[in-house]
Write a structure and sequence with these properties.
With 478 residues, the protein is mainly beta. The chain is built from seven helices and 23 strands. It has one domain: Porin. The strands form three sheets. It has a 14-stranded antiparallel barrel. It has a two-stranded antiparallel ribbon with strand order 1-2. A two-stranded antiparallel sheet has the order 6-7. A hairpin with a 4-residue loop joins strand 19 and strand 20. Helix 4 packs antiparallel against helix 5. It is elongated, with a radius of gyration of 25 Å. The termini are far apart.
Length: 478
């Protein structure tokens, strides 16, 4: 069991559940109504129906020539990536230490109590979205089509008071009201009136999902009335799952399901499963299908209004599938975590023996973390554009947003080769944030590269940090 818990608590070193919703170069506070070509995959497929046009930066006058870029129907990328992590329990430096696993701190008793207090009803959220390959062609007459291959990791770890105090205070947690010596001579804390996990850990949520997403998307202009255009689009995606954990307490009942690729080498103790996969290969332990639907309305060249539903569908986990039964918590030798180095500290709370009773399953089906997006933008000129976005969780499956996210801001293009985006937003259990994106367009728009962050305020204020970066260096448009 200790290897299972070690894996669960060490996962944040991989990467906020919003990387899939915002992680495209060149976009800051709004994206639903503006992203097009392969960049609208996972955002709003209707925008594939936009017809490429000549990009005019400055109109010609009787005494000067204009500045424009040729229209480009093709676009593709390799290795565009977004990584994000946030915490409402940790400060910026503490979150960085938890992610890099390099902390050499040794908490005092008072520091352990302070850490336990900070994590009550708080936690860590993380995500990674890597578009390994993305390509699109947008035609003049029959719409646009895109293919994509994405690697996606997302998760949420939040703790109630009992879980937080167990982690950081160990046997000194008041739940363990008695002490004894075990056969090794170590001091063990135990409870005279022990409780079940479901009684102790209500509100605690340990969720994580990792899957590969292979998609085909299509968008089309379906109606025109004067200057008003209506676009519809859809994405169909084949999914290969590599890791899944969903453990939480609901209505005084413990629910916990796990399915992990044999690559991770997780040990479930004496438990066996009919879905066992031998070896240590990095192979999928689940497959499924996903669907995105989108619609966009444009009014002239200035106003765009969009909406989409993302990640409808499910994955059937069929390899190395286990479920945990509700058991009594008792017996702990640990005095709690001595640092935020989760990888090093996790074994301290596994106790003597198996805390969870695991049972194998032939399979388990889980819905994707579906979301609803709405957004609008206003193009004031070839230089300035303003807009807003809002994302709402459709469910609370593994990888889902904890709460809605709303952001508004601007794009400014001081030069044809430079676009800067910023704004202000809040939600997603990340507090308030200030996004910033810088995008460069070189060789008359053929080659684009950029860098974005979900929250530059994190580098000034260290409370409720959002550490994130989106980077792309090979966006090619032809």
């Amino acid at each position: 069991m200790k290897y299972v818990l070690l894996f669960v608590l060490a996962i944040p070193c991989l990467a906020q559940t919003d990387a899939s919703d915002w992680g495209r170069i060149g976009f800051g506070a709004f994206i639903t109504s503006t992203a097009t070509d392969y960049q609208c995959v996972g955002i709003n497929p209707a925008n594939l129906g936009f017809v490429p046009t000549e990009d005019i930066y400055r109109l010609a006058t009787p005494v000067s020539t204009g500045i424009s870029r040729s229209k480009r129907n093709w676009s593709f990328t390799v290795g565009e990536a977004s990584v994000s992590a946030s915490s409402d329990a940790l400060r910026r430096g503490e979150l960085w230490d938890a992610l890099t696993q390099k902390t050499a701190a040794n908490f005092t008793t008072d520091e352990k109590r302070a850490a336990a207090q900070a994590f009550i009803d708080n936690g860590l959220r993380f995500s990674v979205d890597v578009m390994a390959v993305g390509a699109a062609y947008q035609s003049e007459h029959w719409g646009g089509v895109a293919i994509s291959v994405r690697e996606r990791v997302a998760g949420t770890f939040t703790f109630n008071e009992a879980a937080s105090r167990l982690i950081f205070e160990g046997r000194h947690y008041s739940y363990f009201d008695s002490l004894a010596l075990d056969y090794k001579g170590d001091t063990v804390g135990y409870a005279k009136k022990p409780l079940y996990f479901s009684e102790l850990f209500g509100g605690t949520r340990l969720q994580m999902i990792w899957f590969r997403d292979v998609g085909l998307s299509y968008g089309l202009n379906v109606a025109e009335v004067g200057d008003v255009h209506v676009y519809l689009g859809a994405s169909a995606r084949y999914l290969m799952g590599y890791a899944y954990l969903n453990a939480y307490t609901e209505n005084s009942t413990l629910r916990a399901t796990s399915a992990l690729s044999p690559f991770f080498g997780i040990n479930y103790g004496k438990a066996t499963t009919p879905s066992f996969i031998p070896g240590n290969a990095f192979e999928p332990v689940g497959t499924g299908w996903g669907l995105d639907l989108g619609a966009t309305l444009t009014i002239g060249d200035a106003i765009t209004i969009s909406g989409s539903v993302i990640d409808l569908g499910a994955i059937t986990w069929s390899g190395n599938v286990f479920t945990a039964q509700d058991t009594i918590l008792n017996g702990l030798t640990s005095t709690g975590f001595n640092s935020y180095n989760l990888f090093k500290e996790a074994p301290k709370i596994t106790g003597q023996g198996n805390f969870f009773k695991w049972e194998g399953l032939q399979g388990s089906k889980a819905a994707l973390p579906s979301r609803v997006r709405i957004g609008s933008s206003y193009r004031y000129s070839s230089i300035w554009r303003f807009g807003f976005d809002a994302v709402f969780p459709f469910n609370q499956e593994a990888g889902a947003l904890g709460e809605p996210v709303v952001a508004a801001g601007f794009d400014v293009r001081p030069y044809p080769w430079l676009r800067i985006s910023s704004g202000f937003g809040g939600g997603g259990n990340a507090g308030y944030f200030v996004p910033l994106s810088v995008n460069f367009s070189l060789f008359n728009g053929i080659w684009e590269l950029g860098l974005s962050s979900r929250d530059i305020a994190t580098f000034v204020f260290d409370k409720s940090p959002v550490l994130s970066v989106t980077i792309g260096i090979a966006r090619i448009r032809l």
